[in-house]
Design goal:
Layout lengths: L2 H18 L2 E11 L2 E10 L10 H18 L7 E5 L10 H6 L4 E10 L2 E12 L2 E5 L5 E5 L3 E6 L4
Parallel strand pairs: 2-3
Antiparallel strand pairs: 1-2, 4-5, 4-8, 5-6, 6-7
């Protein structure tokens, strides 16, 4: 089964279960590492949830549910390891919805090519604007980076 279809299948079969438990799928990866295949499912609390962080119990509950459903449907030909976890405090922003949800949060943006001699910028995420990642740095300067020039954007963990 194609990687994209596996991601869509996982999202489809888990939608009701996730909603009932105040959770959502953050990302799904189906990748080969060395000789083994891994189905990695990253879960998050639904936006507006009373609890902010995913617990070990949440991961166990989703893992059990997905394991049973995937065994029942048997959509994946090869053997694989199922891993369910949180995307972490320093999660990578992957979709326009992630950029919207985390607007106002501190982020680190890594570029493929440098701008003003730098490839890494930190600032407060202003969101996506016309296909650009927009941040404000500590000097209140606004930076705009075309999305296709951004290698990755992660939330910055601030203690």
């Amino acid at each position: 089964m194609a990687k994209k279809k596996i991601k869509e299948l996982v999202e489809e079969i888990s939608a009701g279960f996730m909603a009932e438990n105040g959770l959502e799928i953050y990302n799904v990866e189906f990748i080969k590492e060395a000789k083994d295949w891994f189905l990695r499912v990253y879960i998050d609390k639904r936006e507006g949830s009373e609890e902010e962080y995913v617990s070990t119990e949440d991961c166990e509950k989703v893992s059990r549910f997905l394991s049973e459903e995937l065994d029942r449907l048997d959509p994946i030909e090869q053997n694989y390891y199922l891993e369910v976890s949180s995307p972490g405090m320093d999660r990578q922003l992957l979709t326009p919805e992630h950029y919207r949800r985390f607007t106002g949060r501190q982020v680190t943006v890594k570029l493929y090519r440098g701008v003003d001699g730098k490839k890494v910028f930190e600032g407060v995420l202003q969101g996506l604007r016309d296909g650009n990642v927009v941040i404000k740095d500590e000097k209140d300067k606004e930076w705009m980076f075309p999305l296709d020039q951004v290698a990755k954007t992660n939330l910055t963990v601030v203690f």
